[in-house]
Structure formats: C-alpha cells, structure tokens
Design goal:
With about 160 residues, the protein is mainly alpha-helical. It has ten helices and two strands. The protein folds into two domains: about 90 residues, no CATH class; about 60 residues, no CATH class. Helix 2 crosses helix 5 and helix 3 runs parallel beside helix 7.
C-alpha cells in the first residue's frame, strides 16, 4: 500500500491534468450545468475531504502550471479558491469527511518528515502538525487539499488516508 500511495502522489499532477481535462471537456461537450460540477465537488468533499481542488479541478491544474509548483507560491495557490463554492464546501468538510489522514501514534517515530512535506504545516508550524498531539491536525484544516505528500513521505507508514 505504501508503494502505491507514493506512486499515486508522484503522479498527482498527471492525474490532475487528466481528470481536470475530463471535467472540463465533459462539461463543455455535454453542456452540463456548472451546478452539477459543483454538486459533484461537494459530494467528493463529503466522502474524501477537499480532494477536488488538487486532484480534479481544471482551474486548480492551471493554477499549478502558472505557479510552477514552487513552494514560494504555495500560499498564493489558495487565493483562487476564495470564490469557489466547491473549495468552500469541501474545505469545510475536511474535519467530517469519511476519509481522513490518520496517524498511528504507536508506530510514529516523530521524525517530522510529514510536516516538512505538508504545505499547511510549513506555512503555519506554530499552529499545525500531523504528528504533534498538542497542535491542530493539518489534514483537518480548511486549506488541506489532500495532496497526500505527507502520507507518501512517512518512512514507516504511520500516516494513512482511510476511513
């Protein structure tokens, strides 16, 4: 499972490009109302949390291309989501979605590799951490788009994304 997660996360931008293009062309070709896309995005938020933005959104893909994947633009990546109803609803659902990023505290060595990969923990280290019990969990944050870099970075599989 660990190798599969690492492989999927390493191919996330390709998956985003394919699913984003599929979303765009499906909407355009079949003349689907944007409200169906919004409902689909919110539905994925209920189940998976805020995955639509990082894994399926055509605008999210364009923003990542323009931002170049650089960490200096990571906080800027959030700005285009301010007017997006999918980002609002699915971000709100991060705490209550069925799938969550979970830490097995028994096997966690507290190496901190997950926090170094997490853009939320990196931007606000005083507030968020994936493994420190006294801090808020980054995966529950409104801003977490479930890129799953933290899960892939965990050397011993203590972080998982599951029900």
């Amino acid at each position: 499972m660990k190798k599969t997660t690492k492989f999927i996360v390493s191919k996330r931008i390709i998956i985003l490009a394919v699913l984003g293009a599929l979303t765009y062309f499906t909407k355009s070709y079949f003349n689907i109302s944007i409200w169906y896309i919004v409902l689909f995005g919110i539905g994925t938020g209920v189940i998976f949390g805020k995955v639509f933005c990082r894994w399926m959104c055509p605008i999210g893909f364009m923003m990542e291309l323009f931002m170049g994947g650089s960490t200096q633009f990571t906080s800027m990546y959030q700005y285009h989501k301010m007017g997006c109803p999918i980002a609002w609803a699915s971000g709100f659902m991060n705490k209550w979605s069925l799938f969550k990023i979970k830490v097995n505290s028994d096997s966690c060595t507290k190496c901190g590799k997950c926090d170094k990969e997490c853009y939320i923990s990196t931007l606000e280290p005083a507030k968020f951490s994936l493994y420190k019990p006294e801090k808020e969990k980054s995966g529950y944050s409104y801003s977490c788009s479930k890129c799953l870099k933290c899960v892939a970075a965990c050397p011993n599989g203590s972080l998982t994304y599951k029900v």
